[in-house]
Design a protein that fits this description.
The protein is α/β, with parallel strands linked by helices. About 45% of the residues lie in helices and about 15% in strands. The protein has helices at about 1-10, 15-25, 30-50, 70-85, 110-120, 130-140, 200-210, 220-225, and strands at about 60-65, 90-95, 125-130, 160, 165-170, 185-190. Strands 2-1-3-6-5-4 form a 6-stranded mixed β-sheet. Strand 1 (about 60-65), helix 4 (about 70-85) and strand 2 form a beta-alpha-beta unit. Helix 4 runs antiparallel to helix 8.
Length: about 230
């Protein structure tokens, strides 16, 4: 850049201010444009990175349930409220409907299949609510679940897989009233082993246990019931 400045000074020596500006505009406009574009790009990236959405403290997704944004939002806000977190720091998302194995859904968004496994592999999922058949399907495709024996399960009804307890039977908890149980296919709450927030998973179990006595009677969950 310095040699351009020296070159301009040499070639515009003896010119008036107006003549200098006209000369620079005529012969160096593309240099000026390039510098402005570079500065704009740096500023854009700085603003985008600085104000980008932060990773949630806890993410729970629901597979093959009715997509209900009001329920998801209220449930997330209720859990966040028990921890003193901002609502946006807890993500609840039921937009994961897809066919698998012998389970065929009409009008399902099959891209949700890729989205689920991408986020699972990327360690973005802390908890998943899904039918037992989908539990098996994910397991066959490399999904690993946390062993809940290492958790304080707060007396919740557990799902046993071989010698391990890897899930909670949703319909026997306060969550049961919020979700549809597929026929002959128990609904489970599980925690992918790859999830980043193990302590938050433990707190979510405490929250689920508390829902039986308190959370379902809050204004937030009444909004869900009336949605």
């Amino acid at each position: 850049m310095g040699h351009y400045v020296r070159d301009i000074r040499e070639k515009t020596r003896g010119m008036s201010r107006r003549q200098r500006l006209e000369y620079i505009g005529t012969y160096y406009w593309y240099h000026i444009l390039g510098v402005c574009a570079a500065v704009f790009l740096v500023l854009f990236l700085a603003v985008h990175i600085g104000s980008g959405r932060k990773r949630p403290e806890f993410t729970c997704v629901m597979v093959n349930q009715e997509i209900d944004w009001n329920r998801d939002k209220a449930l997330g806000e209720a859990f966040a409220g028990t921890l003193g977190l901002e609502p946006g720091q807890v993500e609840m998302d039921s937009n994961f409907n897809f066919s698998y194995g012998t389970v065929r859904l009409e009008g399902a968004n099959e891209s949700s299949y890729e989205k689920l496994f991408f986020r699972w592999a990327n360690r973005e999922l802390d908890a998943v609510i899904l039918p037992e058949s989908c539990y098996r399907f994910c397991q066959e495709n490399g999904g690993i679940y946390r062993d809940l024996e290492a958790f304080d399960t707060c007396g919740l009804p557990l799902y046993r897989d071989g010698e391990s307890f890897t899930g909670v039977l949703v319909e026997e908890t306060g969550l049961g009233g919020l979700f549809e149980k597929p026929q002959d296919d128990p609904l489970l709450l599980v925690f992918p082993a790859e999830g980043r927030h193990e302590e938050m998973c433990k707190k979510f179990l405490e929250f689920v246990k508390t829902m039986d006595r308190e959370i379902l009677r809050t204004d937030q969950m009444q909004t869900v019931d009336g949605a």
